[in-house]
Amino acid sequence: MAEGRPDAMIGGRYRLISELGSGGFGRVWRAHDEALDVSVAVKEMRLPPSSSDAEQADRLKRAEREARHAARLRDHPNIVAVHDVVVEDGVPWIVMRLVDGQTLADRLADGPLSPGQAAPIAAALVDALGAAHDADIAHRDVKPGNVLLTERGHVLLTDFGIATHDADTQLTSTGMFIGSVEYTAPERLEGHGRGAVSDLFSLGATLYHAVEGVSPFARDTAKATMAAILFHEPQPPRRAGALTDLIVRLLAKDPAARPSFAEARELAAAANSPRRETRVETVQQPVDPEPVPPRQHADRPRIIAGTIATVFGVAMAVVVTMITLSGATHADTRGDALFPPALIAGGISFLVGVGPRTWPIRHSKPIAFGASMATFAVLLALWLPNIAVG
């Protein structure tokens, strides 16, 4: 019998390399396709030790059904493609595309997502489930652990291994619950829910977990979790942002109150659209031929300081001029009398000089330079006689 161990050969073609993960229904291995010389993922469908022959036959049928149905979805960009199914010594092995990345569950171990990070995931999963719905296929185990995030930013829904075609309900074992309890729709817990509409509830629980950081119905025991799903409303999402409306509607306990797949697509697209628009706007933004100089704000303190200094200088010049002119009776005091007006001219030139980037004056720098030179010449002419006499 084939065993799940490194270097084991499955179907005479797929060599197991290392275990990637495990769950209640099996283990996933990294493997090498010896025929095509490519890496693949191989899921080992584990059978419980106490399984009866009937249960084993049911599991084999389910594996074969997965390959048949998944083949219809293999071209969807948000669904992990199933390439082959191998039944060896009564054990089913599902060969799938190998995805480099991590599950959403692994990502959430580092903390919740922002609405902007979760919105593309929501749009991708709604689209994937909508495609499955169009093919009359229900996933039945939508949860963070079955959402793969690739290193290139793609979102993929995987593990249709427990999926069921709407016409295959007779293959479900009596009393056997399929799926993860805390993400399961209430109608399925009551035993009469089937179809993709129940997957929408599971999607709502998954997105709630993604943005809030906790599963909306997780409790200490499975019984308490089921009771929460059936009878209790989750806490309203506080961090969902634009995804709030979508999540709240998906979590409606009445299947008829949930949005259709078309409505869910619209809600997800609306939550994701601001990010798309920003990206397009950034790429297509024309270059301004006359951009605002980056130092405009940096010059503001200098302009304010220069303006204050100039106003103070002008005020002092006026006062000194009035006092000096009232006592200017000799020629040697005329220079002192003319000094304040020169100071005023210097202040004006300084004000012109500090504001060339903000004043609507062309060639303000040459004007400021000329005014400053004229002021210096006046001051020099006035004070040279005093220096010579001294």
TrEMBL record:
Its EC number is 2.7.11.1. Keywords: ATP-binding, Kinase, Membrane, Nucleotide-binding, Serine/threonine-protein kinase, Transferase, Transmembrane, Transmembrane helix. ATP binds at K43. InterPro entries: Kinase-like_dom_sf, Prot_kinase_dom, Protein_kinase_ATP_BS, Ser/Thr_kinase_AS. The chain crosses the membrane at residues 303-325, 337-355, 367-384. SMART domains: S_TKc (SM00220). Residues 56-69 have a biased composition (Basic and acidic residues). One of its GO terms (molecular function) is protein serine/threonine kinase activity. Residues 14-276 form the Protein kinase domain. It is an enzyme of class 2 (transferase). This is non-specific serine/threonine protein kinase. Residues 47-69, 269-298 are annotated as: Disordered. Coiled coil: none annotated. It comes from the Bacteria.
